[in-house]
Write a structure and sequence with these properties.
Blueprint (H helix, E strand, L loop, with lengths): L11 E4 L3 E4 L25 E4 L16 E7 L2 E12 L4 E4 L16 E5 L6 E10 L4 E6 L6 E5 L2 E14 L1 E6 L4 E10 L14 E3 L14 E11 L2 E11 L3 H11 L5 H4 L4 H11 L6 E2 L1 H9 L11 E6 L20 E6 L12 E6 L13 E5 L5 E5 L5 E6 L13 E5 L2
Parallel strand pairs: 14-24, 16-24, 17-18
Antiparallel strand pairs: 1-2, 3-13, 4-5, 5-6, 5-7, 6-13, 7-12, 8-11, 8-13, 9-10, 9-12, 15-16, 18-19, 19-20, 20-21, 21-22, 22-23
């Protein structure tokens, strides 16, 4: 069964009765599944077929080199998701990009690009994938409950080829690229109309509440330490290692740097690593001196006087919106007053007027959840708010969870807050 039309970039879903429905027509249709039809020799027929999506029909991010993130919908139901994918306009395929290299100033492992189903289509018995993989291997994860405990490999295919898999009544799949771009042409599924109940998985992690400095800050004098590694012990922890930071007033620091350039204090003042920036904010309730509002950052970026710091200048922006990703976390509303900051991270090409995909988001009032104090909570995103990782205030970002779309198996969950062992 081949529903590809050469030169046309479209996503179709094959319904029972062999009716093709394009996605811009989907709002007028009813999604149904039927029991698998068999031929006289008892061979299973594929009753769903998925091909590449029409770029004009789906909302997506702004063409980042690290890939776009978007979902397809049918009758207001989010059906499929594409994470770090791009479209090849001269062909009829989706390209899942190889995993980005965020080694620069980031120790957080990127999430694999993927194509996946968000809601169950029924029990999946068989699957056929038509793809091209220039080198390396790709992965097919399958699961009954989105824990994706089964993984199958897609081998290198220089030319487009099809591979079939017999599956054991799974309901969710995720096709992932790793070290090579994966080109998907068609996915065919043989399903039944049976469904299991499903709940998103919970993550069992731990965190600590930070001690934010509350006294007067003296530039170049105030020093504070924060744990960079802890050893948990039931509900308590011991500090395995820590790091000291020095507070610097931005105006004084910029004047100093203009006079002295990149001397021995530069690395103390100018912080770009996500862990360092998070630690600095937690300790001093403000950001490092190289973080500025958009206008100031652009001035400094274009001013020869600050040319020595140009590549390390970052933007910070403030928001009080109540929509979007803030709905995915239990914000402490503080009598209805919401304030959160976005601190930019340089993960790929970056400048103050082209801010890329990386952020630390600081929720200043913290979370209204078990174990959390009124201290700020910081989350990390390297995919422009598709996913978040909460900072545990001890040198690590926790498990990814869904922020604005659904590329992971997790929603935010209340991890254990540890108390310092006496």
């Amino acid at each position: 069964m081949n529903i590809i039309k050469k030169g046309l970039l479209a996503l179709f879903i094959l319904f029972s009765g062999f009716v093709f429905v394009s996605c811009n027509q989907a709002q007028q249709q009813t999604a149904t599944t039927t029991s698998i039809a068999t031929t006289t020799n008892n061979q299973v027929n594929y009753n769903f077929s998925i091909t590449s999506a029409d770029t004009s029909k789906y909302k997506k991010s702004n063409g980042y080199t690290t890939g776009n993130y978007f979902e397809t919908s049918l009758n207001s139901k989010k059906l499929y998701g594409i994470y770090r994918g791009v479209f090849k306009n001269d062909t009829d395929i989706i390209a899942l990009l190889e995993k980005p290299n965020y080694s620069l100033n980031s120790s957080v492992e990127p999430l694999e690009s993927s194509f996946y189903n968000i809601i169950s289509l029924g029990l999946i018995k068989k699957m056929k994938i038509t793809y091209r993989l220039p080198y390396g291997k790709a992965k097919l994860y399958t699961s009954a409950d989105k824990n994706f405990d089964s993984v199958l490999e897609l081998d290198t295919k220089v030319e487009y080829s099809s591979v079939e898999f017999d599956l054991n009544d799974i309901e969710y799949f995720k096709i992932c690229a790793t070290n090579s771009t994966l080109y998907l042409r068609e996915i065919q599924l043989a399903t039944t109309n049976e469904h299991r109940s499903f709940s998103y998985l919970k993550y069992d992690g731990f965190r600590i509440n930070p001690a934010t400095y509350s006294s007067a800050l003296v530039s170049g004098v105030t020093k504070r330490s924060i744990p960079t590694k802890i050893t948990p012990n039931n509900d308590t922890y011991t500090i395995a290692s820590s790091k000291e930071y020095t507070y610097y007033d931005q105006y004084e620091a910029l004047s100093y740097l203009e006079l002295h350039g990149k001397d021995e204090l530069y690395d103390e003042m100018v912080l770009t690593n996500p862990v360092d920036v998070a630690n600095y904010y937690m300790l001093f309730n403000t950001w490092p001196v190289n973080y500025m509002n958009m206008d100031d950052a652009l001035i400094c970026y274009e001013d020869d006087a600050y040319s020595f710091m140009k590549d390390d200048i970052r933007c910070v922006s403030a928001y009080s919106r109540t929509n979007g990703y803030v709905k995915t976390v239990p914000l402490n509303m503080n009598n209805g007053n919401i304030l959160y900051y976005e601190l930019d991270l340089k993960l790929d090409n970056y400048s103050p007027n082209s801010r890329s995909v990386g952020r630390l988001v600081v929720f200043t009032n913290g979370f209204d959840s078990d174990g959390y104090s009124n201290s700020p909570v910081i989350v990390y995103t390297d995919d422009h708010y598709a996913t978040f990782k909460e900072y545990n205030n001890a040198g690590e970002f926790l498990e990814r969870f869904n922020a604005e779309i659904n590329p992971t198996s997790y929603y935010w969950s209340n991890v254990k807050t540890l108390s310092l062992q006496n």
